[in-house]
Amino acid sequence: MSSKKTQVKTYLKNHLILYLMMVPGVVALVLFCYVPMYGIVIAFQDFNVFEGYFGSPWVGLGHFRTLFSDPYFFRLMKNTFLLGTLSFLFSFPAPLILALIINECRLNKFKSVVQSISYLPHFIPMVVMVGIMIELFGSYGVVNSVLNCFGIESISFFSKVQWFRPLYIGSAIWKGAGWGSIIYMGALTAIDTALYEAAEIDGASRWDRLVHITLPSIKPTVVTLFILDIGGVMKVGFEKVFLMYSPATYEVADVLSTYVYRQGIVAANFSYSSAVDLFNNVISVCFVLAANWIAKKLGEEGIV
Amino acid sequence: MSKKIKIADWILAGVLMGIGLATLYPLWWVLMTSLSDPVWLSTHTVGLIPGKFSIDSYKFILSESKLWVSYLNSIIYAAGSTVVTLFVCSLYAYPLTLDQFKGKKFFNTLMLIPMFFSGGIIPAYLLITNLKMLDTVWAMILPGAFSTYYVILFRTNMRGIPQELRESAIVDGASEFRVYWNIIIPLSKVIFLIIALYCIVGSWNSFTPPLLYLSDETKMPLSIYLRDLIVTNSTDTTELTMSGGSAYYQTIASQGGGIGMRIAIKMGTIIVSVVPIMMIYPFIQKYFVKGVMLGSVKG
Predict the structure, then answer these.
(1) Do the chains contact at B146 and A28, CB–CB below 8 Å?
(2) Which of B287, B87, B112, B296 is nearest to B191 (CA)?
(3) Which of A35, A78, B125, B185 is the most buried (most CB within 10 A)?
(4) Nearest Cβ partner of A243 from B41, B98, B227?
(5) Out of A120-124, B12-16, B277-281, which region has the weakest mean confidence (pLDDT)?
(6) ipTM reported for the complex, 2 dp
(7) Are the C-beta atoms of residues A158 and A137 closer than 8 Å to each other?
(8) CA distances from A219 to A102, B2, B233, B274, B295 (A)
(9) Contact present, B60 and B265 (Cβ < 8 Å)
(10) Over the stretch A268-292, which tens digit does the pLDDT of each residue have?
């Protein structure tokens, strides 16, 4: 009988190659995910590049105190929260409504063409989309020439504070609604057609079937995506705001993630910007957990 | 009753048509503006079609060497990151599908934690700096090489391959790597294709990593070139006159087409940059949709 040690040895001898196969993945994970996680310690240090992670002096929660007394703190929080919440309120229902319309339409050929078209903007790079918007809404763009036709003076949309949020949200719907509808279409096609047939025999109208069969059937999908999206409210992406904003619109457009970029990468305040980023991440996680908790209270399956 | 349904269907179709047209119009407008005569465009705006067609902007774009350098860079980054990502992720996924593989739980947890927590951009930037990867092709390829999402897709898919195939190959003396190479890969072609397409599009469109990690102009990908040209307008008239198509630009400008030329060049550059993806889009669309469906099944 072989002892435990030799058993381990034979196992490793036979399976060593499996572990070797995982090496590239493990190295990439540790290096690019776990090392930066450790790097968060600089939020509690007065980090400078020469002394590194281990030599820089500790300052405890000092940077967080600075953040809370930062003159921009309130503005950043308000902008992040409002932009995230408004985007969520308008962008969340859009794919669901689109999927329901597509699902209800019985002209199949036509339906599939529209579906294909609706996915297309997902593949347009963010920078191109913003570029197109700038021109469409620019002084030589279609929107302003239509306004001029009605005798309204041209509006410089990208430097007006009140237009930033509508443009941000509208373009998000243009880009994401079609792609987002795919997941609902999957849930919709999974509904047992026997349910509809039975309802039809019982004399249920089209609207009744939508309300009593379709919507309840896709409810789990809707709830899961709802929790995921609500969790992302404070995680307003850097890229799009960065491309769309300008000092003229900072008042409504500057969010935590863009502030991190300006403070960290541009101004090289590594410690302070890490603290801002960490703060943003912590509230984001709180949002996810809160959304999950509420979903569970309402008797739905959570995601965490 | 049947007549009523018919009306409802036509209304729905009308709404869908409106949505489809609203989706396409901005892209159509870009294409048509890029095909406009610069002099005409300086005083008019394209509605549906230009008042005067011309391919002047494309003549200029073709001679713009900075664009083609960034185009080539984008191709290199996309190809490199796709190959590396496919190998890293599929190699990580394969052992996780085997019953007798010990440590599955550890490796699963190891890859799931980064889905919830991340270090953020500053520590990542400092890491890339410390690794001396700033301004290298590696900064565009390696940080994104591991993706938990792709590993889960690979794992779900590879689980569908019968274990007997692998076992009989092992009995015949094949090594695990040979099994992976000669059995698993050929039987997972579709998922490899789907993930490759995700990687290509993701890399082609990526903006933040090059913004953070690259500063050398000759290494910039298309996304950064486009930002400089279209969004920040930093490539202005003076720069246009100094670059490759200077003489050409000046001829047009002297005819009063300077403004129109600049708009047409921007729109033409957009068209040139999205053409590769738009061309293959009809063929790859179903694979993307398949990928979303697979991903929504929890692994």
Answers:
(1) yes
(2) B287
(3) B125
(4) B227
(5) B277-281
(6) 0.86
(7) yes
(8) 18, 29, 46, 37, 18
(9) yes
(10) 899 999 999 999 988 988 888 888 8
pTM for this entry: 0.88
Nearest to A17 among B92, B177, B292 (CB): B177
Residues of A in contact with B129 (CB under 8 A): 49
Q: What confidence tens digit (pLDDT) does each residue in B83-112 have?
A: 999 999 999 999 999 888 888 999 999 999
Interface test with B, best of A19, A20, A21 (most B CBs within 10 A): A21
Q: Which residues of A touch B231 (CB under 8 A)?
A: 127, 130-131, 134, 243
Domains for chain B: give ranges and CATH numbers.
Answer: 2-64+244-296 (no CATH), 65-218 (1.10.3720.10)
pLDDT in tens, B110-128: 999 888 788 889 999 999 9
CB spacing of A120 vs B23 below 8 angstroms = yes
Q: Does A264 touch chain B (CB under 8 A)?
A: yes
**Amino acid symbol at A37:** M
- Rounded to the nearest 10 degrees, what angle do helices B104-116 and B65-96 cross at? 140
Q: Does residue A77 belong to the interface with chain B, where contact is any CB pair within 8 Å?
A: no
**Environment class of A73 (CB within 10 Å of its CB; exposed 0-12, middle 13-18, buried 19+):** middle
In the predicted structure, residue B234 carries a pLDDT above the cut 80: no
Scan for tokens 């890293």, then name that residue: B88
